[in-house]
Specification:
The protein is an alpha/beta fold and about 300 residues long. It has one domain: Aldolase class I (TIM Barrel, Alpha-Beta Barrel), CATH 3.20.20. It contains eleven helices and nine strands. Strands 1, 2, 3, 4, 5, 6, 7, 8 and 9 form a nine-stranded mixed β-sheet that branches. α10 links the parallel β8 and β9. α2 packs antiparallel against α6 and α5 crosses α6. The protein is globular and about 50 Å long. It starts with 14 loop residues before the first helix and ends in a 10-residue tail after the last helix. The model has no long low-confidence stretch (mean pLDDT about 95). Bound molecules: iron/sulfur cluster (SF4). The site of iron/sulfur cluster (SF4) has 14 residues, from loops. The site of iron/sulfur cluster has 14 residues, from loops.
Length: about 300
């Protein structure tokens, strides 16, 4: 470490205070204790993951990582010029039928690694010039990831930590991340129950997600961008589905009316029928351009303006 972290030299990540006070160790202990009757996420499986039992997400005792790499195709404020330092975690607590990474999320492709090994990988991402540590699908490995961040921070990690999740989160778990995560990046996938049940086996998705996003925003506020790079705050993603499968208006109304009109919302058009999507009438094709433009119009009409093409 030469003390120069890309061009965020003045930046101090959220977790440093808790690392310096030792409070992060209490959080880690509490998070690991939740694995004994796992209620890390809203599936509340109750299995003892510390004893090797496996719940809905298929994650066991050890953390499984698919890859660690700089990623240049993330949102521009994360990718910057040095890339976003992505850690792709295997398995998932949502397991959508149209998953674009099903080999990683459903089949668990990856290798078991220790928290110490991941901490060293985080430091490598910092060394090569990445702008953040981007934890992709982190929910089910929250205890391991916080421990890895603590180890890395004690060895010099100073990059913002991004919690890049599906939005299906327990508020109790998120409360334990308060002061540790710098940037929350949740999807808001559905604004209704039918699609959430059909495609993700989670009819309560929207209600759970709304509570989670309120808590995330309470912790970090709107996204703060300094010299084109995101430092802190909430970055929401919404993937438009064909045939209004995502109930986009309800999602955008929630963001505009209950979170903030200053929310940074990446409205995504890249849906492709992957994995088992062809078995489901309605999501068995890509999104038509007019469907996507329609959602952009809705967002503009609600007064949202950040994170998507606004002309
Ligand atoms: S993290 Fe996995 S085992 Fe734990 S409650 Fe969620 S789905 Fe179940």
């Amino acid at each position: 470490m030469n003390g120069k972290i890309n061009y965020l030299t003045e930046f101090e990540p959220a977790y440093l205070e808790l690392v310096n006070s030792g409070e992060i160790d209490n959080r880690i202990e509490t998070l690991y204790s939740k694995l004994e009757q796992c209620d890390i996420c809203p599936r509340n499986c109750g299995v003892n993951r510390l004893d090797g039992e496996i719940g809905y997400c298929q994650a066991g005792t050890d953390m499984v990582v698919s890859s660690v790499q700089p990623h240049f195709w993330e949102e521009a404020p994360l990718a910057g010029i040095g890339g976003s330092g992505t850690v792709f975690l295997a398995n998932c607590n949502l397991r959508c039928v149209y998953c674009q990474n099903y080999d990683i999320s459903h089949e668990g492709k990856g290798n078991s690694i220790t928290e110490e090994q991941l901490a060293d990988s985080m430091l490598w991402l910092q060394r090569i010039g990445c702008h953040n540590i981007n934890l992709v699908t982190p929910t089910h490995y929250t205890p391991h990831l916080v421990k890895a961040v603590a180890i890395a921070a004690r060895k010099g990690l100073r990059l913002p930590v991004v919690y890049n999740c599906s939005g299906y989160e327990n508020v109790e778990t998120l409360e334990l991340l308060d002061g540790i995560v710098d940037i929350y990046m949740p999807d808001i996938k559905y604004g209704g129950t039918e699609s959430a049940k059909l495609y993700s086996d989670a009819p309560d998705y929207f209600e759970v997600c709304k509570q989670a996003v309120r808590e995330m925003h309470r912790q970090v506020g709107d996204l703060v961008i300094d010299r084109t790079i995101a430092l802190h705050g909430l970055l929401i993603r919404h993937l438009v589905l064909p045939n209004n499968g995502a109930d986009s208006l309800q999602v955008l109304e929630f963001i505009a009316n209950e979170i903030s009109r200053e929310s940074y919302v990446n409205i995504m058009s890249q849906y492709r029928p992957a994995y088992r999507a062809l078995e489901f009438e309605g999501i068995d094709r890509s999104v038509y351009i007019e469907e996507y433009y329609n959602v952009l119009d809705m967002a503009r009409g609600l007064g949202l303006r950040r994170g998507f093409p606004n002309e």
